[in-house]
Amino acid sequence: MKPAVGKQRWDLLFLVIAMQFMSVPAIAGHLSPDRIAQIANMLPEAPAGFGVPCSDREVWNTLRTTFGYQIGMAADILQHPIPAWDNDAYLENMRSGDQARGDNLFKGRQSPLVHLVLAECVENQGRFLPRIAELLDSLSAQPTWTLPENDPNFDSFSGRRHFVELNSALLADIVAETLYLLGDSLPGPTRRNTMNALERNIFSPMRQAYSVGIGQPWLEWQSNWNAVCLDGVTGAALAVLQERKDRALFVAGAEHYSAYYLMGFPKDGYSVEGIGYWNYGMTNFAELREQIWQATSGQVDLFQAPIVRAVALFGLQSQMLPGVVADFGDAKFLEKPNRQLVTYLEDVFGIVDPFTGRAVTDLKQTSPQGELVYDVMAAFPIHSQVADTAPRTGSTGLMGLRAYYSLSKVLVSRPYPGGHFAVTIKAGGNALAHSHNDIGSFSIGEGDTQVLGDPGGPQFYTSQTFSRLRYDSALLNSYGHPVPVVGGNLQLNATKVNAPILQTSFEPDVDSITVDMTPAYDAPELQHLERTMHYGRKGTGKVDIVDTFTLKRATDVEEALPTHGTWKQVNADTIEFTMKGQRLRVRIDAPFPITVTSKDIADYGNPFTRVGVLVKMQSSGTIAMHISPAP
Predict the structure, then answer these.
(1) How confident is the model at residue 92 (pLDDT cuts 50, 70, 90)?
(2) Which domain holds residue 52?
(3) Which residue of 54, 125, 263, 356 could cross-link 121, Cys pair, CB 3.0 to 4.6 Å?
(4) pLDDT for 594-612, tens place per residue?
(5) Whole-number Å distance between alpha carbons of 97 and 92
(6) Where residue 562 sits, what CATH number does that domain have?
């Protein structure tokens, strides 16, 4: 469930923030000694990770079907030596700005542990234990668990001060779960080496941050960093720290500081960073919740915060069709909700589909994700349920005909059961770091894909992505989005634009929304611009995008229809788009003749075609794009 090193890394904006704060006190000591004592009384005498130790053969023998595939992977790992630690690779980021060598070093050394441990637990023949011990000793001896891009002053590398971050927290969780699962089957010196490494890299710096007030700035960041790091360090503490009060400190810290993660969401629960970042952060927050719930026998439950349910439901309610979510902002094109996470949230909140009265089983996936802690958690599900008080039926019910995020200004319109044509449109901006200039952007869902509309975000980041040059990219500025270009003018920075919603109408057969897009432009020819989206559910469905321009003088207006598929002009006013066997037609209704053009864009590893519809507007008027499945 958690991405490997190099995937979903924090972006360069947060690196700048970290560099500003890493050398100065950032956290005040807010933890109550009384609360720590209360939590200590809730915890068991002995530490425990997820599941039961691998010595419990009655249980682990039943999991061979679940984890048996790991045996072959682990056997292959035995055929290759552990990649040696390389100081030069770690320092490459400082010399050239190239993160790949350092990140690959960590990935090559860390990733085998998951496969070896699960294989040993299900096979139980001892053949993987020597390599596990060797790997733990090697990881314990390396100078730091912190990625080089997150150690700009080399404080961790040099041993001056260890900064806990995404990778070190993840590794701590895996290593601690390994110690818990394998117990005394590991050599005593290896266990001691590993505990010393956990103390040096994780526990000691976190105790200082919690108790003294020096250290980890991400504790108060309203981002995924907060959930990911708290998950890793808290899980590690609960799995291996012997003293109950010591473990209680980490639980109290998670209970207090995890509120900052939730502060990063508007009250309607919309994830402004997109579905991929929701997958990443919410997976870790759910895992953190489950660890603490199990350790305290349900007496501490992070899901009791009022906003959690709204945030948790984003993975379901953002879907316009099963598994199809508009890829606004930096979300990767066609990225889907994480099925195992959605399954967990369904179970916890007692979620059912109002149309069927059953769980949303078409999203369920029970196969492991290749991540030690979460996979073991999923194999031993003992979590409680949180009361579900949301409407169950009707057009506003959970997974009903629509989801309208009124604060975030996003409308998800779904078809009647059995339909295959849907739309999502937005009027709001995005998270600061991951924003695109896309006021009024929309995405059309057809079947299991998005044939037309918003192109999604980068497949990778560069040093320019989060710099002042960010919006030089046609993928990130409005040129590559399905929004107008007015008199050659693109949209302004969406994080600084407030585009009012002028009207909404939600009926069984038709949804509509009107957005005042005027504030998104600084175009001398433009006096006013409104975009109205009508979505009809009857038959095979249809979408009308209607742009009404009030102009001060004649000017060129170009509508954009991005696609990752192919296209052809059927006749003077109709364009057909095809992708993954799905076909859509767009009929253009304009007051003046149209000219259709196309441009291939491939910024940041996301290739798509921008089909442009140029209208030389001689006066004010309306351009309508009528979109429907091709006959």
Answers:
(1) confident
(2) 12-264
(3) 54
(4) 999 999 999 999 999 999 9
(5) 7
(6) 2.70.98.70
